[in-house]
Amino acid sequence: MAVFAYKGRNPRGELVQGRLESSDSGAVADHLINTGITPIDIQASAVRDAPASTPRGLFAPAITLVDVMLFSRQMYTLLKAGVPILRALAGLQESTANTSLKEVIADLRVSLDSGRELSAAMRRHPKAFGTFYVSLVRVGESTGMLETVFLRLYEHLEFEKEMRDRIKSALRYPAFVVVAMGIALVIVNVVVVPAFAKLFASFNAQLPLMTRIVIGVSNFTVNYWPLIMIGAAAAVGGFVAWRSTPGGRYQWDRIKLRIPIAGNIIVKATLARFARSLSLSIKSGVPVVQGLSTVAGVVDNDYIAQRIQQMRDGVERGESVLRTAATAGIFTPVVLQMIAVGDETGELDDLMLEVAELYEREVDYEVKTLAAQIEPILIVFLGVIVTILALAVFLPIWDLASVARNR
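RESULT FIELD:
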C-alpha cells in the first residue's frame, strides 16, 4: 500500500494535515470523512516510512506490555495537564528506565520535529506499538481527543495484562502436574523397572504379559534414549516450524480452542479481548467496519481473527452486525442478544463493553474452579499408571508365591 499526504479541516474548521497508508486516495478520503475531517488535498507521498530498528543491541531489554501501559498513562496525564507533546515526550524519555523504550521515545521526538504525526512516528516501531494502538492514536489526532485516547489505551492494555495473567495462572497448575508426572514416569522406567527386571530374570520363569510389556518399554528407553531425545527434539522443532506457517498457525489456534477445560478459558478470554477492543474503537470514533478490521489483529488467534474478518466483510456488504455475528458462530445466544440490542439502539460500544465484562466474569470463574475440574482427570490418570506399574511388579511375585505353595 502507498502512503498519501493529506490536508483537511476538522469539525472546528482547523487545518489538519498528515500522512496515511492506504490502497488509493479514495480510501484515504473515505477514512478522513468517517473521522470527521473534510479533505482538502490528498497527494501520494514519495517517501514511505521505514520501520525503525528497535531495540538496538543484542542484550537490549524488550519493551513489555507494562512499559507501553505506563507510557500511555503518563502521556494522558501530561497532555491533560496541557503539556505540549514534544515536552511530554522529552520528560518521559528522561524518566523511562527501559533503555529500548527510551530510544523509541527519542525517535518519536525526532519524527515529530521533522513534521510527522505522532501516529506515523509510532508506526515506525511495530514492536512497541501495534496496529490497534497506532490506529487509535491516529483517530485521537484527527478528533482532537488524543489525551482521552491515551487513557482508553491504558485501560485497554491493563485489561490485556490482566487477561494474560489469568490465562497463565489457569494453565500453570496443569502444566506443572503434567511435567511432574512425566519426570516420575522417566525415573520409574530408567531406575525402578530395571531393578525389578534383574530380580525377575533370576527366577527363570515365564513373566505375565503386562510385566513383559513394562520391562520392554523400560529396556527400549534405557537402550535407545539418545534416539528418543533426538526424536523428541525433531518433533518439537517440526511443530514450531509448522506453527510458524500461516496454515499451521491457523490450525493450531483452532485446536487450542478445543482443548478440554483450558480451551474454554482461552475462547472466553479471547472474545473478551475482542469485545473490549471493539468497544474502545467505536467509542474513539472509529467506524464499525474499520474497527472490526483493526480488532482482528488484536485477538492473537488466527481462527477467531478470520471469523472477525468475515464479520467485517458482511458489515461492509450492508448486513447487520447481529447477522454477521450469528454467522461467525463464535458467540453465545446471550451475547448475540446483547449485540442485537446494541445494533438496534446505536449503543453498540456500551453493549460490547458489557459483553467483555460478561466474558471476564466467566473467565474469572473458570480460573477459580480450574483445580476442581482438573483434579478428577489427574487422579484417574495417576490411578491407571499406578495400577499398571503395581500389577507389572507384583503379578510375577504372586505367581512365584503360588508355585512355591503348591510345591
